[in-house]
């Protein structure tokens, strides 16, 4: 989830039409941002929601939120924390062993095929928050990553970087510009390219793109258990600055039905 949305003050709850269509159950997104939040406001919002699943996110430092969510009539499914990292943008460190180009420099059909194949290969075993919820099909979640990335190719091709090695796509990074930063929303390498130091090339290209955009810093996030990629970020000079908890608030009847189906 984009950092700017998580950093917005107050409580925001909105439908997620894409998730609802993808999973066949009504999904809403609930974000608890900085600032004072009245307990009754948050509890009333959860209780009045028509969603089968509320995907709730809040800063892990907000120790007031978990008890409030647990006091509602919904089951609370811990779905993992996101850790956010950053570094000042310097640039001037181009990739050395691979070519990293905007998807707009490629044929549209070829770019979409490349992005789809890399995302599927690199995110198949990724423990995202959807996998914590028995109401949601993990295969549909993976398809969602593919659709979102290829949709970005169509809408904003220069915001998708494709990493090529010997003429074959091996990596992808999708980007978004914030107020003072460029954020990596999704990045990955195919398994055959991992463990070879090639991820550093992708990060170098991302930082170069951020420098060209005049951004002051680079922001990136992952599930907290994804230690391997965080080590790579540390080697590139990134540092953690925030952690955001994710829980799914699920109607108990729907959860019981889903677990009964196995």
UniProtKB/TrEMBL annotation:
Alphabetical keyword list: Acyltransferase, Transferase
Domain called N-acetyltransferase: residue spans: 113-261
PROSITE patterns given in the database record: GNAT (PS51186)
Keyword Acyltransferase: yes
InterPro entries: Acyl_CoA_acyltransferase, Bact_Acetyltransf, GNAT_dom
Alphabetical list of SUPFAM superfamilies matching this protein: Acyl-CoA N-acyltransferases (Nat) (SSF55729)
Taxonomy, superkingdom: Bacteria
Gene3D superfamilies assigned: 3.40.630.30
Protein's name according to its UniProt entry: GNAT superfamily N-acetyltransferase
Species name: Cellulomonas iranensis
Upper classification of the organism: Bacteria, Bacillati, Actinomycetota, Actinomycetes, Micrococcales
């Amino acid at each position: 989830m984009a950092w700017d949305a998580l950093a917005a003050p107050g409580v925001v709850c909105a439908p997620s039409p894409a998730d609802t269509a993808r999973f066949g159950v009504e999904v809403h997104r609930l974000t608890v941002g900085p600032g004072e939040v009245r307990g009754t406001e948050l509890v009333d919002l959860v209780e009045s929601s028509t969603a089968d699943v509320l995907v709730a996110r809040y800063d892990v430092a907000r120790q007031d939120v978990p008890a409030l969510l647990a006091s509602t009539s919904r089951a609370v499914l811990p779905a993992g924390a996101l850790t956010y990292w950053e570094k000042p943008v310097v640039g001037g460190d181009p990739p050395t062993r691979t070519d990293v180009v905007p998807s707009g420099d490629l044929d549209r059909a070829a770019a979409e095929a490349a992005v789809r194949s890399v995302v599927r290969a690199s995110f198949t075993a990724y423990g995202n928050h959807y996998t914590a919820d028995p109401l949601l099909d993990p295969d549909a979640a993976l398809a969602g990553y593919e659709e979102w990335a290829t949709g970005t190719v169509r809408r904003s091709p220069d915001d998708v970087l494709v990493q090529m090695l010997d003429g074959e796509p091996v990596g992808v990074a999708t980007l978004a510009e914030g107020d003072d930063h460029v954020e990596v929303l999704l990045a990955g390498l195919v398994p055959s390219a991992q463990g070879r130091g090639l991820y550093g090339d992708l990060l170098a290209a991302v930082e170069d793109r951020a420098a060209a955009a005049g951004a002051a810093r680079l922001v990136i996030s992952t599930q907290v258990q994804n230690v391997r990629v965080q080590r790579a970020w540390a080697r590139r000079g990134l540092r953690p600055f925030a952690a955001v908890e994710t829980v799914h608030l699920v109607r108990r009847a729907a959860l019981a039905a889903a677990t009964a189906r196995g």
